[in-house]
Amino acid sequence: MAQPTKKAKVAGNVFNHDEKTPAVKQAGNGLVEQDGLKYFTGFGNEFSSEAIEGALPIGQNTPQQCAYGLYAEQLSGTAFTRPRSHNQRSWLYRIRPAVVHDAFKKVDVNNINQKWGECEGDPNQMRWSPFPLPKDGERVNFVQGLATVAGAGDPCMRSGMAIHVYACNANMDNCCFYSSDGDMLIVPQLGTLHITTEFGEMNVCNNEICVIQVCVCVCVCVCVGYISEIFGSHFQLPDLGPIGANGLANPRDFLTPIAKYEDVDGDFTVYNKYQGQMFSAKQDHSPFDVVAWHGNYAPYKYDLAKFAVVNSVSFDHMDPSIFTVLTAPTPTPGLALIDFVIFPPRWSVHEHTFRPPYYHRNCMAEFMGLIRGHYEAKAEGFAPGGATLHSMMTPHGPDRQCFESASSAELKPEVIAKGTQAFMFETSLGLKTTPWAATCGARQEDYHAVWRGLDKHFKPPSK
Ligand SMILES: O=C(O)Cc1cc(O)ccc1O
Ligand SMILES: [Fe+2]
After folding, report:
1. CB distance 381 to ligand 1 below 6 Å
2. Structural domain boundaries of the chain?
3. CATH code given to domain 306-445
4. Do 423 and 307 touch, CB atoms closer than 8 A?
5. Which pLDDT tens digit goes with each residue over 383-424?
């Protein structure tokens, strides 16, 4: 049997920090083009896409016979009965239905798991140097390079979340991955993700992010980054309230791939993360055989440089919720399962204000990562590819050096965080870290020392 072609290109400059996001251009028919690929624009739209004219049925979803001998298959992202405003599903017209595969068997792949459940809680401030890269001579693909850092809850209960990191130096040749457990928000840190999905192809580079929903097969090449996986919820744009109709992440800047298929017979392995464990099944053809699709349940990506920042232009440090790109709700209004928040380059103009983040204790858990540059509240020690975790009610804030310089800095308008991008996964759940997070070699045991020397400056009036 012919082998499927290698789908993913290897990025030329995989570990290059200076990578710029390629320009997006109008491509006609409501599409845009970037880096040789075409995309739909918009968030949560009903899209329709066909790689062969006439492949998409008109006026119905399940014709007795689909055009060109295709099979119709629905992918449901929400219960059939969810209200229209929340209902998510897509119809896929494919060469074979997804069910044509051998039995799933459990596989042991490194460090992606749910082992936070075996660990005790730890209220300490935690920081990690950049997570380890594959060792010299080791060939690691995306599935093998996934490691879970922290999590809470349980995919079986459709409630909770996990934080993973990935580091891989090999393409997923003739194999693909999907999660049955949760939507994955992927934040590349090094290298461009060349992602093949059942819906089409996406390139996602440093300073862009993407969301791959439950059950969408992906095949990814060499790269390093962070992932937040959410069980039982989907990401949505935050409400803007008094900000008005525009600002923050604007819907039109979200890009969704267009249909692209391969008709390839050959050995293929499908990895499926199911109830926290990895399974794999063999099949004799490429799963990227969707010729046409329509619906509102499809992967998308977003360039963080397009985030329209809103902030105080008078005084006081605002809460970081003003920088929310995407949020995944809980049933309690305003309470997020996770907010994806960024700390983008921006003007800082506040008068008579201590400008860096304030000292605080938060009823939410804050996991932070650094895509590039440095983070404004930490003078050193928090490097791109590293992370911090400040758990629920764990006190934290600027380190001593940052406090001292910001307390006496001249307050002129200035651009801050230029060339940097830090982000936060902020969750209402109590996160626990995994054994891997403690043993991967990146944990900084002395992190707490950054607040040492925050001396007493108290000078009460003399009586
Ligand atoms: O802890 C952090 O560094 C994140 C953060 C930033 C900020 O500007 C305000 C609150 C907050 O938790
Ligand atoms: Fe914080």
Report:
1. no
2. 24-115+137-303, 306-445
3. 2.60.120.10
4. no
5. 999 999 999 999 999 999 999 999 999 999 999 999 999 999
